[in-house]
Amino acid sequence: MKILVTVKRIPDPDEPLKFSGGVLDTSAVKWVPNTFDEYAMETALRLAEHVGGSQRLAEVIVMSICPAGQRQHVTQFLAMGGDRAVVVDHDDRALDAQTVAEAIAAVWKRESCDLLIAGKLAQDMEGNEVAQRAAALLGLPQATFAATVAWDREAGSLTVGREVDDGVESKKIPLPAVVSVDLRVVLPHSVKNGATPDDHAYQEGPRLASLRGITMAKRKKVDVVSLADLGVEAKNTSPIVHAEPPPPRPPGQIVESVDELVEKLATEAKVL
Question: In the beta sheet, which residues pair with residue 10?
Fold first, then answer.
């Protein structure tokens, strides 16, 4: 099986952002991997590896749209355990969600993949639409916000658990398919592949790249293609027209009693 994992770089959310002329200034920003894409990568690796055995069950292909000089995140995902990568040489910030989905669909077809795994959203824009758009373009079944994933290799299907308001909803989808994952998918027992013992407990969270993994990542194959190579037109129908930081929060207040607190919540904060 071939698993395609889509990954993205984002401005470090722990660093303050700078704005200039109504746009976000990224000239000196520190780029880091999107956290939900790390969850997607960990999911793919747990499906692909046979803990206690020597046979790998799937090939994991990393895909990213990014310009030259800003591809360190691709190396990191390869160091986590990805087998190879496909990089689309373009600034993803200049593309809309539909164009990104078209590029993903084109790479999927080019690589003849069986499963697309994506993070549920990108932290920089809070966008939650690319995986769904790709599934529609490819005509594939999809399961979004996956908290658990179980692969039935004999049946060629996945059972995906999704957290909903009143519990957990399970969906069974045939392969090939598209899955987007939520944060609980990296709990110790969230992913099962039918080969690794079901009681095997992974370390919670996405794995860290080891020094050996980083060294090996630099030797792994990375195919660089253009949008034109994929037959995709570069377009952006939803550009950012203006951006500015939120207003500073007013200082907090100290109240002398519960009655005063309730009064202020009702008359000043207007939340009661």
Answer: 32
